[in-house]
């Protein structure tokens, strides 16, 4: 049996340290408009780059397992922290289950932290033994910031916990109140266990996530309501456009509004309106649509008319001189839905102009040019590298335009692109890549959805068969490991919440199309969506897992990007919500999915490191969302980054200076799985002083 160990508290140490550097002097686009407060200075060890020879020696020695940020406070305060005597129960009792174990570990740590006088005794009722020593690490979090840490090892778990807690108390100031207002996280890294305090309960942590082991329609409905509230918060109060990133650890947005994420937000709000019949949601979408219309180029002289500018720079008050076919395509989706609902001609007129511009971006082969970009006053440059993602988005937009207008020029253009994609499948199979990346699930799912849209326009049986063939191929690439709560439900090679959400959305569309066509075996698509929905919900901020964010109320309902990167990207929320809304009417009452925990004795003996390595190899074989080393480097101007293929926001040097020193080294077994990535992201360069 394979079971993932709960790990990664140590990663949050690196996250907090790097975030403090990245957000130093933050001045723009905080949620409440206030200027950022000064962050803590960097540890002295990161102040300058190590000599090259020292770096080589460090790599040869392996990762440094010690976190020295609190050493000075521990040395100063530990002598005044009481050292209680541990007493055991008269009867060790029956073997513990996982929940009782977590609760008792936390309860014992809390008792140690509250000791006031030397000589007191504390009972430790944790009858657990092991063939190797217990290493315990106790962390304290307050308002998303790590304020204490203590570590100790001993053959007795009770002794290791006591000493680690005493050191955490010393790190927090040395008094009985040092950890009083903190939220504790306790890690037994050598035994693959991590525990997060939530009220008087100990929650399981798995790769830094609080895993969701079961859910039902009631919880899914609650997540829909929370996601709706989050999406309404990402719309700018003045311009009504949507931000792309919310930096939850700093409680701030980036100083840009994005056309495509405004369109995606509007599309989801319209789905919510159809579900709830809430006129307020329609009104919000119409306001957002005014931002979309303001971002459409009307310049007939340079052949950009109909395209949509990618972003609005809030500091300069000007749109970025860049028009991307994906932005125009996704905006067409929303404008057509608005026109169908309101019958206002301005939405259809704008959608038609966008469709005409998309046709002008087609190549004779049926592929599309990715974007146009221009430096101030200079000529427009064309990015012509082929992207399956963008080609699929254009095919979907043209197919939907034909269904809405019956204009054959859109169908003719769509047919050319559909033939291009069908030939790609004939040559390479359903699992496809492009000139940006090797075969991966995101590109492959856009191929499926775009051909599905074309099939709806034409009724072509051959295209329908291709849709189901490639959908079945994707089903076979989904992680199906109910013993592994961290991976079960996402797709191999899709490492972000946006990717999982998008694939769930596509599979929900295939499921509904399958039912409409009276096909057999449609429930396989529904089951895939249910598994993916569980996966996404454990990446959603809520009271259980918001211990690393500054403002839990603002983060609530946001779907954070990954274990490593805790910002929220708007498309992660939109895709999740679209999948939730699509699948909800087809779900039965009662538990929809249940993932049992491995018994405690097996968890403590499980070789999590070997299991991770095997699973990581399968993820790398699945494409890795453009993270593979053989990917061509992409500038922001040429990158198809709309639907989960990018790893994060634009990064700049920390504090406006070149990065210095080695990246944070994470202890083996404590870091999230996969190769060590970049520093946890801070705001882009425009937000740094």
Automatic annotation (TrEMBL):
Listed PROSITE patterns: PROKAR_LIPOPROTEIN
Give the source's domain of life in one word: Bacteria
Which region is the signal sequence?
1-27
GO BP terms: namely: carbohydrate metabolic process
Which parts of this chain are annotated as the region Disordered? 32-69, 609-689
Positions with biased composition (Pro residues): 670-689
Q: In which residue ranges is the amino acid composition biased (Basic and acidic residues)?
A: 611-622, 636-646
- Keyword presence, Transferase: no
List UniProt keywords, sorted A-Z. Signal
> Per the record, where are the segments of Low complexity compositional bias?
36-52
Q: Does the keyword Signal apply?
A: yes
UniProt cross-references to InterPro entries, sorted A to Z: 6-hairpin_glycosidase_sf
Q: What is this protein called?
A: Terpene cyclase
Q: Which organism is it from?
A: Polyangium fumosum
The root-end lineage is:
Bacteria, Pseudomonadati, Myxococcota, Polyangia, Polyangiales
């Amino acid at each position: 049996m394979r079971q993932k160990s709960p790990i990664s508290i140590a990663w949050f140490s690196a996250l907090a340290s790097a975030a403090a550097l990245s957000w130093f002097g933050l001045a723009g686009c905080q949620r409440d408009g206030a200027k950022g407060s000064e962050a803590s200075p960097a540890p002295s060890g990161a102040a300058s780059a190590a000599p090259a020879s020292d770096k080589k020696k460090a790599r040869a020695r392996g990762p440094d397992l010690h976190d020295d940020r609190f050493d000075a406070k521990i040395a100063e305060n530990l002598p005044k922290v009481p050292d209680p005597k541990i007493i055991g129960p008269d009867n060790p009792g029956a073997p513990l289950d996982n929940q009782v174990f977590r609760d008792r570990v936390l309860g014992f740590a809390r008792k140690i932290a509250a000791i006031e006088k030397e000589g007191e005794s504390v009972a430790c009722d944790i009858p657990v033994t092991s063939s190797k020593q217990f290493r315990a690490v106790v962390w304290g979090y307050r308002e998303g910031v790590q304020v204490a840490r203590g570590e100790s090892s001993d053959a007795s778990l009770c002794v290791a916990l006591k000493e680690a807690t005493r050191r955490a108390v010393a790190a927090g100031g040395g008094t009985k109140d040092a950890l009083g207002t903190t939220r504790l996280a306790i890690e037994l890294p050598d035994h693959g266990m991590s525990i997060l305090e939530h009220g008087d309960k100990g929650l399981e942590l798995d790769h830094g996530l609080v895993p969701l082991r079961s859910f039902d329609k009631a919880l899914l409905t609650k997540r829909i309501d929370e996601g709706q509230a989050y999406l309404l918060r990402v719309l700018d109060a003045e311009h009504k456009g949507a931000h792309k990133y919310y930096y939850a650890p700093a409680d701030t947005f980036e100083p840009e509004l994005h056309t495509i994420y405004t369109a995606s937000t509007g599309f989801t709000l319209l789905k919510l309106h159809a579900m709830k019949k809430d006129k307020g949601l329609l009104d919000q979408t119409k306001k957002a649509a005014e931002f979309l219309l303001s971002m459409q180029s009307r310049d007939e002289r340079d052949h950009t008319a109909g395209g949509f500018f990618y972003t609005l720079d809030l500091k300069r008050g000007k749109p970025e001189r860049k028009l991307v076919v994906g932005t125009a395509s996704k905006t067409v989706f929303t404008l057509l839905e608005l026109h169908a609902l309101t019958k206002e001609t301005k939405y259809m007129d704008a959608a038609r102009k966008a469709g005409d511009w998309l046709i002008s971006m087609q190549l004779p082969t049926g592929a599309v040019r990715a974007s146009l970009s221009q430096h101030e006053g200079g000529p427009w440059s064309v990015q012509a590298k082929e992207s399956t993602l963008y080609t699929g988005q254009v095919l979907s937009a043209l197919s939907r335009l034909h269904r809405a207008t019956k204009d054959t020029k859109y169908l003719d253009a769509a047919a050319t692109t559909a033939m291009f994609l069908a030939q790609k499948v004939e040559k390479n199979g359903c699992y496809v890549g492009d000139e940006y990346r090797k075969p991966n699930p995101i590109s492959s799912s856009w191929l499926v959805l775009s051909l599905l849209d074309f099939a709806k326009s034409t009724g072509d049986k051959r295209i329908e068969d291709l849709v189901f063939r490639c959908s079945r191929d994707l089903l076979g690439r989904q992680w199906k490991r109910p013993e592994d709560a961290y991976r079960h439900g996402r797709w191999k090679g899709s490492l972000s919440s946006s990717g999982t959400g998008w694939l769930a959305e596509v599979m929900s569309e295939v499921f509904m199309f399958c039912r409409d066509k009276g096909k057999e075996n449609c429930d396989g698509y529904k089951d895939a969506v249910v598994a993916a929905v569980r996966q996404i919900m454990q990446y959603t901020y809520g009271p259980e897992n918001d211990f690393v964010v500054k403002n839990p109320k603002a983060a609530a309902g946001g779907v954070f990007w990954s274990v490593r990167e805790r910002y929220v990207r708007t498309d992660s929320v939109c895709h999740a919500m679209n999948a939730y809304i699509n699948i909800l009417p087809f779900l039965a009452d009662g538990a929809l999915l249940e993932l049992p925990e491995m018994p405690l004795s097996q968890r403590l003996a499980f070789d999590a490191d070997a299991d991770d390595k095997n699973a990581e190899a399968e993820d790398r074989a699945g494409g890795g969302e453009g993270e593979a080393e053989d990917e061509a480097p992409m500038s922001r101007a040429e990158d198809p980054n709309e639907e989960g293929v990018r790893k994060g926001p634009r990064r700049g040097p920390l504090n406006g200076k070149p990065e210095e020193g080695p990246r944070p080294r994470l202890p083996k077994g404590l870091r999230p799985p996969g190769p060590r990535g970049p520093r946890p992201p801070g705001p882009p360069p425009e937000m740094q002083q």
